[in-house]
Amino acid sequence: MEKIIKIRALKIILFALCILLASCKKEAPKEESPAKETEQTVSNGDPLPSWNDVQVKKDIIAYVKEVTTTGGPNFIPAADRIATFDNDGTLWSEQPFYFQLFFALDQVKALAPKHPEWKTKQPFKAVLENNMEELMKQGKPGLLQIVAVSHAGMTTDAFEADVKKWISEAQHPSKKKLYKNLIYQPMLELVKYLQANQFKVFIVSGGGIDFMRAWAEDVYGIPKENIVGSTLKAKYDYNNGAPSITKLPALDFNDDKDGKPVAIEKYIGKKPVFAAGNSDGDLQMLEWAASNKYKNFELYVHHTDSVREWAYDRKSHIGTLDKGLDEGKAKNWSFVDMKNDWKVIFP
Amino acid sequence: MEKIIKIRALKIILFALCILLASCKKEAPKEESPAKETEQTVSNGDPLPSWNDVQVKKDIIAYVKEVTTTGGPNFIPAADRIATFDNDGTLWSEQPFYFQLFFALDQVKALAPKHPEWKTKQPFKAVLENNMEELMKQGKPGLLQIVAVSHAGMTTDAFEADVKKWISEAQHPSKKKLYKNLIYQPMLELVKYLQANQFKVFIVSGGGIDFMRAWAEDVYGIPKENIVGSTLKAKYDYNNGAPSITKLPALDFNDDKDGKPVAIEKYIGKKPVFAAGNSDGDLQMLEWAASNKYKNFELYVHHTDSVREWAYDRKSHIGTLDKGLDEGKAKNWSFVDMKNDWKVIFP
Hints:
- The structure is a homodimer of 347-residue chains.
- The first copy, chain A, is an alpha/beta fold.
- Chain A has helices at 2-22, 55-67, 99-111, 124-128, 132-137, 139-151, 156-169, 185-196, 209-220, 259-267, 283-290, 323-330, 338-341, and strands spanning 82-85, 200-208, 227-237, 244-253, 274-277, 297-304, 311-312, 334-337.
- In chain A, strands 1, 2, 3, 4, 5, 6, 7 and 8 form an 8-stranded mixed sheet that branches.
- In chain A, helix 1 crosses helix 6, helix 3 crosses helix 6 and helix 7 crosses helix 9.
- The first copy, chain A, is globular.
- The interface between A and B is large, with 40 and 40 residues.
């Protein structure tokens, strides 16, 4: 029975990956040839210099000033200034696939020399030949094997080393930049602005928790212990005095949609007063923040820039923003229009 | 199948409770009539005034000075100064049962007026009649029902309110003090000393995460998001715009023994450099800290004071310290001898 449960759990984690692959055939986001980015203007004393002087920027600054003013009617004690940010599509790009899938495929390629049999064995053959169509045909069982070899069966130390190496070298196929340079400069400024005002900033992402922790502390300045994500089960071994933790090919927790408030409660134990996302997968997290007794701020990043980044929302199979767009507008949540609100996208 | 899994999971969480109840029949810890506690001496500039001037105190202070000295050979950057403390038996008492079990039994009594049928229905009848012998006879199925009514089926907000009320009122049966006053003053000083030296102090306990979070932030000064413990599964409901999270009667994670390093990796993502416990349930956490590349400190609290607290170790069914006693001595870990090393036990 345990085996059945593990396989069932893996199917859940793979479901997202399957959607990603399926989306190859479906609507692709708009991505036009990139123009030179506007030079970043740093204004003295402006905490968000990469943002144009738009309403959402004014609202963020007004909110932060209001809730950090001691004695003010909407003051929030520092201990309760919890801010939660989604990662994929909110702090860095996510097209044409979540970057973690590129990592998984790159890992298969990196491991291939030790597995000569993969040259003729699916789904590995398809990955090694960059044959996405064939990979799609392999369906969930194929992806299960890819996740198993790239994300499980090694110690947490070994996995971290794999991710660190990849993030320092791997380039995005169309943007021709390191993935870690496809982070959003304006959001980085927002994170630092909140931290400077004694907000405790957390990432709460559907991505793998240890995949993110391997680089996000350096890249975003968000400490490892403030990074929450999806988890695989894991096993401790005493290992004759050199203890290790091994990642197992079984889902522990899927940190998406309803899972986000549940993870926030589990990892943080406090409701956010500030929450930022970009998709329907973040809707429940924003609802949860919106129910805070303290004055709160909900922010949706809307991907509208087909030249500098990608343009997509309701019909995209990655980062779908459909219900969230309606509910957020109805509730007067704040929306970033990436094309018009941000002077630069990437650092 | 799902039902079977839930029941199986609950059996695991109840296992500890069953051991507790079983221990009624077995060896009880030594608890002699309490004498007046020594007056606490606060020395100026002494970070641990409730500790006698013993070797373990000198070792702690020497360690903290060494690893926080910038430029020194064993300097640890602040971001990596992770300290993890067990709770039951390490930060507060745990005899004759874990205090969380007293909470569960008290909850049954508090809920009884709404359930007149409990007067004649086991296991509730046994609880209401304070008949521990009969309660033991009810075994795991009985305890399952007690946990279900006291820890699940309510929102996280409602549960927090229950615990806050209990912790502010409930008294220990033999010590005749509020449970929250049965914390160890010397350990509180140690927590504050580490925090003052930019250690990030976490609780990593087998106790329920939201049971502890309801009071430990106020009582210990450890923020909610730094409290790690066992978890039940939970469910998010949008609830027509008043969202809530409901605790479910199914184990999510058992944060004990092998589970402690796994939880540390999951919640913190970094190895501790300082770890403190009191039982074999903490052994793996201390091993994990001992494998840190940074200079590290492992501390066992040894319950040796039958007058002011309780005396127990190898043969106790709560807080058993047997393997840990041997392994810790062999590895030269530090041991607190509560009777001889601490001027006072409770604040």
